[in-house]
Amino acid sequence: MSEVITCRGLEKTYLGPTAVPVLRGVDLTVEVGERIAIIGRSGSGKSTLLHLLGGLDAPSGGSVSVQGRPFSEMGEAERGRVRNATLGFVYQFHHLLPEFSALENVALPQRIAGRPWAAAKARAGELLERLGLGARLTHRPARLSGGEQQRVALARAVANEPLLLLADEPTGNLDQKTAGEVFAEMLALARGRGLAALIATHNDELAARMDRIVRLENGILVEG
Fold first, then answer.
1. How far apart are CA 43 and CA 49, in angstroms?
2. Closest to 83 in 3D by CA, of 59, 108, 55
3. How far is it, in rounded angstroms, from Cα 91 to Cα 153?
4. Phi-psi domain of 69 (left: phi exceeds 0; alpha: psi -120 through 50; beta: other)
5. Residues 141, 94: contact at Cβ < 8 Å?
6. What CATH number should be reported for the domain holding residue 165?
7. Range of the domain at 102
8. Residue 2 gets which letter from DSSP?
9. pLDDT of 169-203, one tens digit each?
10. Distances (CA, A) of 63 to 12, 29, 56, 85, 158
């Protein structure tokens, strides 16, 4: 398999009245099509790690490379293009645009990437249909349940056909039954499209569905 994303010696320290080290030399490689769960107690740095891997924040030390190219060698515009084309993001809170419909929320990232509006809407409709939202295409987020909102966020994350899905506690806001359903749909969508996935979760039962589990402890990443 080839690498989608790699970090070496990744460190992050938040500065303030007292320096707070969160990551202390993390090494991780995600291969094409590999599904990995990151577990760890609340505050262990799971969100920080995903933000660094997604190029949304800069590390204090170490490096992150996407398909062999370090983020540190890219300007902001190129980092944005790489994120849009290679990485898909799902968060605990859906971050949907409230003034747009479900269909429009999924179509907009495709338009930003240059896909014609008609093709973007067609793909958005296909993804939402697959996730059981065919009757909710014109609904705005406020008219959707929590599970439906996360399904729209998932469709939006994969709309540009990324190589890697980064998901930060994507079911943490949902009840147990809905969380299990959305997690299963996420994995099915990733497997069906050959996506790699790196999912941070505090739910050990959901993590066990992944190909591999890594744990953050005291700023260090360890297997299982």
1. 11
2. 55
3. 8
4. beta
5. yes
6. 3.40.50.300
7. 3-223
8. -
9. 888 777 888 888 888 888 888 888 888 999 998 88
10. 11, 12, 13, 20, 25
